Amino acid sequence: MGPDPRDHHDSYQRELAPETAGEPGDRFRRVAAAIRRYSIFPPRLVEGVLRRPIELDDTVGIHYRGLRLVRLFFAARVIATFDGDDAGWWRAGFTYRTLVGHPELGEETFTVEKELATGRMRVALRSWSRPGTRLARVFSPLVRRLQVHASERALDHLACIA
User: Fold this and answer.
1) Is 52 left (phi over 0), alpha (psi -120 to 50) or beta?
2) SS3 call for 104
3) What was the pLDDT predicted at 65?
4) Looking at residue 19, which CATH number applies to its domain?
5) Is residue 3 part of a domain?
6) Hey, what's the torsion of the CAs at 158, 2, 67, 139, to 10 degrees?
7) Which ranges in the chain belong to alpha helices (H)?
8) What's the DSSP call for residue 41?
9) How high is the pLDDT of residue 66?
10) Can you name the residues that pair with 121 across neighbouring β-strands?
11) Nearest CA among 20, 43, 27, 10 for reference residue 159
12) Which of 121, 104, 147, 114 is nearest to 14 (CA)?
């Protein structure tokens, strides 16, 4: 059904050390490759399950390890991939939409971005979501904290890769 004004609309960004102006360089490509492998989160927190670099229409499995006694599995479908110039910013990454059974219903975009004129770089996670299961609605404050924590750790992880 798409986003609703009452949903969580998030935009997490982390500035990276700049590259020289112009086409993406080695650090940008290293982060872009990690995103396409779904190596976005620290492995101790989230493990992506896929067979190849992410492509349009792939189904991505996610093992969430953030709870000590429980290892959860959910899935999402890739609805867009991109790697190119977009109004002076080179963007590489993908967007997925969660599938039935995922605790959160929504979409998330994972991207590394470089301003071509200046070399400025950042990683970003942008999303909209709402509880997707009855259990997620009951425990929504906890689920929300886990969601925010995972996003912050993803930015840390991608910054280390850069």
Assistant:
1) beta
2) strand
3) 75
4) 3.30.530.20
5) no
6) 140
7) 26-36, 134-138, 140-161
8) S
9) 67
10) 16, 114
11) 27
12) 121
CA-to-CA dists, residue 154 to 28, 44, 70, 119, angstroms: 16, 11, 20, 22
To the nearest 10 degrees (0 to 180), the angle between helices 140-161 and 26-36 is: 140
24, 114 Cβ separation under 8 angstroms: yes
Q: Which residue range is the domain that position 51 belongs to?
A: 8-161
d(CA 35, CA 120): 19
pLDDT at 52: 78
CB 93 within 8 Å of CB 13? no
With respect to residue 98, please indicate whether it lies within any of the assigned structural domains.
Answer: yes
Count of structural domains, the chain: 1
In a domain, 71, yes or no: yes
The answer to whether residue 1 is domain-embedded is no
pTM given for the model: 0.91
pLDDT tens series, the chain, 162 aa:
788 888 889 999 999 999 999 999 999 999 999 999 999 989 888 888 877 789 999 999 888 776 677 777 889 999 999 999 999 999 999 999 999 888 889 999 999 999 999 999 999 999 999 888 888 889 888 888 888 998 999 999 999 999
Read off φ and ψ for residue 113, nearest 5 degrees: -135, 140
